[in-house]
Amino acid sequence: MEYIILGIVIFIIIVVLLLYRETKIFRVTNYSFRLPDMKGAKLRIVALADLHGKVYGKDNEPLLSAIEEAKPDMIICAGDMITAYLKAGFDGGLVDGKFVSENKQYESAMRFMQTLACKYPVFFGNGNHESRLYRRASDFGDAYEKLVASLGQMGIVHLANEAKSVTINDVTVNVYGLDIEGKYYKRGKTPELPVDYLVNKLGECRGASDETEADKPRINLLIAHNPDYHERYYEWGADVTFCGHLHGGVMRLPFIGGVISPQFHFFPRYSGDIYTRGNQAIVVSKGIGSHSMPLRIFDRAEVVVLDIC
Prior knowledge:
Layout: H1 2-24, E1 27-33, E2 43-48, H2 61-70, E3 74-77, E4 93-95, E5 98-100, H3 104-117, E6 122-125, H4 128-135, H5 137-140, H6 143-154, E7 157-159, E8 162-168, E9 171-178, H7 195-202, E10 218-224, H8 230-236, E11 240-243, E12 252-253, E13 257-258, E14 273-277, E15 280-284, E16 302-308
Parallel strand pairs: 1-16, 2-3, 3-6, 6-7, 9-10, 10-11, 11-15
Antiparallel strand pairs: 2-16, 4-5, 8-9, 12-13, 14-15
């Protein structure tokens, strides 16, 4: 009987330590992807998703240090950097150059991104939580407009069914941000999303604009929070798509991957990894934070570092 009790105690301790590690200690995940259109040029991207206002250490110093150590050329924020709770206020803005809000999770997330924007080009796409602010304007008021305005004041490029072209390391980088309707996030069955939907929202995925640019390195990046529509992202034509949303599937199993999605789909195919098809890739972050029920099993929070060459 004593051995049974001891075994139970040891098991409980292991589970507690595992849960602590999975939710409190993030990892850095490195991927590499070769793309012919890069023509030998190199681009390093740090991808973040699903922060949900989480804070690591004091003022996210461990997280900022990990990103700085990676020496990225640009930052992609693939949605849900905040958590849109109805009971939480989302008033806030820059005061003397620093973001201030009574909602401390919101404040910490925005200050974190503000710090990033002081050092790197930052591109921000909506997740379901950011878009919830405007979809439910009757509850959140003008919170979304204030969010977008604050991001702009910080120098962050916010993309909601928009595109921005920049030159980094002599590479023409076209960044698109897809913002989809709430019905595509509802629990239960997944509505069909045709590729024409992406074309209507984003336009055609562009190539070199003329023959003089054909020999220059270029890349088309798509920020699309929900990986359920991975087939459409491939079909639309993005070279690299950045997703999140599934939090790694909450629990991950060897040779299987994530167990469940927020839409209650079991064993989602694209839940946290880099997936390639020919000269295209989809990077799905397992997320750097969590919300509601902070549970991760064999599914550590992560910062993604992607080298494209």
